[in-house]
Amino acid sequence: MLLEPGDVQQFFRLHRTLMFFVNQRLKVIPDPLPTPEAFAALLPGARLAVRDAWLANPDLTESFVTTNPAQLPETELGIVRSWRHLVAGKFYVFRALKKHTVFLSTTDPNHSPPVAQNVLDRDVDPEEPNTSWVADVTYIPTREGWLYLAAVEDLFSRRVVGWSMDATTTSRLVVDAPEMALVGRLRGPSSSALVAHSDRGASTRASTTGVGCARRGSRAA
Hints:
Blueprint lengths: L4 H22 L9 H5 L3 H13 L2 H9 L6 H9 L8 E6 L4 E5 L26 E11 L2 E10 L4 E8 L4 H15 L9 E4 L8 H9 L3 E2 L1
Parallel strand pairs: 3-6, 6-7
Antiparallel strand pairs: 1-2, 3-4, 4-5
Helix pairs in contact: 1-3, 6-7
């Protein structure tokens, strides 16, 4: 994701202003710093020490916004306030959307939601219909904004057997598509042999999808 030059300058200005405030509160750098610009002139190791202290004390962001020692305008205070939701770690950009950018972590945090085993195991040539389905979510640009599409494909017929569209990426988006497929295609005892496979992204891991499959005897994978 590329930022405009003005946005880059604004980010670093707000960041060093916040870090200057953090150091004033925590005294990570014992020698007094007269200005945020003096903080920016520190060696990288010193700046990182202040950054790490901030991550360990996230309430300081709200203190900064509440007291507003730098007399920032409300729009810039809103930017700093949004940093309360920062998640520390190593990430890479997964998908850049119109209003949001999706990042994936390179780690596997302990609080991650459970992920089903890969039962399909790349067996993409089933011998019968309604035994192996795959699902995914994509987004489509329109004149009125982004349209999000969830689809379920039967690997036997290579036909889309369920779909759902919405202006936002809610859990219902990824639930409605397999629900449509289940209602329309599974009407007999063969439902117990179905494997429903999706990638391991957060949206397609929605727990309600697994519940919908389990309710009809199929397996989420």
